[in-house]
């Protein structure tokens, strides 16, 4: 094992070749973890969530059923443990980590134990929200009597406030979502099916170098959009009905998520009215967002608009969710817990009205909080556009 002194490590910056126009500053992130371990007398972390791993190291790997773990220590440079077939990639894409791997024929937990040598491990910090019992059992099999400490609150807190660099990446993902709308609006008509339009959008994104969508693209026609979790099917897009698009991409490790509802042909007055109410709610919430207000207050601003218009019972979900490297992350906007909004937070503002058998409208932008308010990450027109 190459013994890397913590001091040397912290002078380095991780370098992610996939994003080679930008160096990822992992120093302060890993220092924060290290400080947490010191304060709580924890011997090490074993971080397995691929998104957290990417966030902390700049390395994007998905080990599937194999095991990858980031071990941060209170007193020395961190170790990165990966399947043998990922070791070279890990070495190429990071700097300063003690990287070691295991072969498929080996017991990964025994390899970890052996690598740590005689180090006495009594407490391990893991993400309670993420780690399966099979992995905590694997650790216990080598470190008998070990206690687990929850790292989730710290990681959530760190990921909650986006750096300028992260916001730049989120803007790029937002730009691609805007491009998706442009492609989809142009392509959708009553000769085509919902899945035709999905295919067109996703094909064009792949051609533009987007590795993946951030979730399955949603295109729903007419009353089919009244199901907030409806999935596109091989059904024709209806004329003179609304058409809902909910989509986003994953680019440079960051997600976008946005919704627009347009009209194919002439909308009914009723549908146009529902659209107008949702838009008013969405914009009222966006106008309200600034540091110091609370998540529940933001939800209420949007909900009040819809309730006053008489459709409160048809707005059946929270107003929004945090977004970043995951399309849904901490915090909830209008969930069971409240939180005070701070500069650098990113979350969605997505009110909807869903009237079963009739119509469904949702309008969604993700936004980032600035010193005095907020800015949307998607810019596509939100008025009821007719195609
Ligand atoms: Mn969303
Ligand atoms: Mn969405």
What does this structure look like?
By secondary structure, this protein is an alpha+beta fold. The chain contains 11 helices and 19 strands. It has helices at residues 6-11, 27-39, 50-57, 87-93, 108-116, 133-142, 152-160, 164-187, 194-207, 269-288, 295-308, and strands at 44-45, 69-71, 79-83, 98-102, 123-126, 147-150, 212-213, 218-221, 241-247, 249-251, 254-255, 258-264, 320-322, 329-333, 346-349, 352-355, 359-362, 365-369, 374-376. The strands form 7 sheets. Strands 1-5-6 form a 3-stranded parallel beta sheet, with no helix packed on it. A 3-stranded mixed beta sheet has the order 2-3-4, with helices on both faces. A 3-stranded antiparallel beta sheet has the order 7-10-11, with helices on one face. Strand 5 (123-126), helix 6 (133-142) and strand 6 form a beta-alpha-beta unit. Helix 5 crosses helix 6 (133-142) and helix 10 (269-288) packs antiparallel against helix 11 (295-308). The radius of gyration is 23 Å and the shape is elongated. The model is unreliable at 1-24 (pLDDT under 50). The structure holds manganese (II) ion (MN) (2 copies).
């Amino acid at each position: 094992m190459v013994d890397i002194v913590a001091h040397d490590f912290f002078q380095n910056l991780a370098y992610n070749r996939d994003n080679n126009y930008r160096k990822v500053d992992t120093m302060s992130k890993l220092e924060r973890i290290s400080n947490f371990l010191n304060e709580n007398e924890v011997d090490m972390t074993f971080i397995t969530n691929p998104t957290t791993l990417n966030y902390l190291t700049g390395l994007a790997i998905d080990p599937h059923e194999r095991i990858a773990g980031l071990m941060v220590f209170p007193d020395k440079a961190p170790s990165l443990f990966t399947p043998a077939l990922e070791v070279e990639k890990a070495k190429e894409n990071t700097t300063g980590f003690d990287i070691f791997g295991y072969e498929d024929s080996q017991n990964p937990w025994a390899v970890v134990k052996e690598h740590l040598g005689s180090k006495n491990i009594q407490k391990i910090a893991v993400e309670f929200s993420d780690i399966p019992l099979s992995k905590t059992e694997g650790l216990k099999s080598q470190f008998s009597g070990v206690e687990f400490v929850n790292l989730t609150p710290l990681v959530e807190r760190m990921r909650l406030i986006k750096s300028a660099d992260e916001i730049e990446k989120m803007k790029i993902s937002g730009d691609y979502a805007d491009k998706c709308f442009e492609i989809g609006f142009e392509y959708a008509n009553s000769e085509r099916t919902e899945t035709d339009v999905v295919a067109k959008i996703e094909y064009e994104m792949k051609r533009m170098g987007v590795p993946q969508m951030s979730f399955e693209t949603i295109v729903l026609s007419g009353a089919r959009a009244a199901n907030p979790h409806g999935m596109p099917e091989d059904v024709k897009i209806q004329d003179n009905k609304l058409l809902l698009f909910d989509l986003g991409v994953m680019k440079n490790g960051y997600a976008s998520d946005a919704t627009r509802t347009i009209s194919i042909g002439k909308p009914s007055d009723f549908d146009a009215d529902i659209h107008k109410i949702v838009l008013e709610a969405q914009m009222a919430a966006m106008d309200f967002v600034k540091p110091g207000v609370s998540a529940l207050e933001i939800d209420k601003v949007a909900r009040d608009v819809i309730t006053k218009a008489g459709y409160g019972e048809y707005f059946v979900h929270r107003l929004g969710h945090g977004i970043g490297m995951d399309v849904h992350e901490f915090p909830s906007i209008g969930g069971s817990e409240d939180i005070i909004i701070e500069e650098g937070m990113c979350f969605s503002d997505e009110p909807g009205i869903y009237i079963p058998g009739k119509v469904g409208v949702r309008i969604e932008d993700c936004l980032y909080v600035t010193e005095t308010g907020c800015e949307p990450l998607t810019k596509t027109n939100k008025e009821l556009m007719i195609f």
